[in-house]
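Q: I'm writing up a methods section and want to include an example of the input and output format. Could you take the sequence below and give the corresponding predicted structure tokens, formatted cleanly so I can copy it straight into the document?
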Amino acid sequence: MRGFALHEHEQVEARAGYVDRYLCRTSTLLNGLCHGRLKQIAIACLDLDGARTGAGKRIHVHKFFEMRTQRPRRKARVPAVPAWPAITALLDRCTLRERAMLALMAFGGLRRGEVAALDVGDVVLDFGLRRVMGKGGHEVPVALPTQARAILRDYVAAERAGAPPTAPVFVVMYVNKAGLSMERRIIGQRIWKVVRAAGKRAGISALHPHALRHACGAELLRRTKNLRLVQEQLRHADVQTTTGYTKITQQDIREGLETLDGEGE
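A: Here is the clean output for your methods example:
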């Protein structure tokens, strides 16, 4: 933009505050651009557009950004969901600790951060989890099916027996500088690595924790046909997020067409 002159200096300065306020509100659209330089260009273009439309009219800053920084709308897509038989086969190949982690995500729809935040006292073996720390710090109970509760019961009995209620369910072990074995709460990134490694061993490429959550939602919807139930289990604030699981896939079409076999004349 070298040599791009700013016209009517007094009017430019008067609008500077307005442009500043708008740029702050639209910071997500300005990725990788210099705020100061973009402000200068915006005011200059406003001056030029104002001159073209007449002295009594003024083009607002939001119109400038609609014309010059509008992004194409992303297409809605079906979440990448592993086949449910592959998930159940994966659990059979995992260690007890890995199986407990993956079961919470695949059967309970937990996010990896929610798994990491679980305490021993949160586990209620005849129900599931009495407290899950979700997005925004919201604490909610999450029910688990019988299979997931059995896996969690075996893990707690084998590896977390005697731990106080405030102790984390999943920990990592390390040796400190004094040579003593220590433990600390697992973090989400470590859970991501555990899931990726388990998927690689089972031949499921690029498996990640959220794919297990997607699998939970998709399978629950397939079996119950109840979108509201899926929303509650996955704890989506907006049901529009849950509707992503209702997208029709080629597999859905094939399965539906198979129901026509033997029907009719």
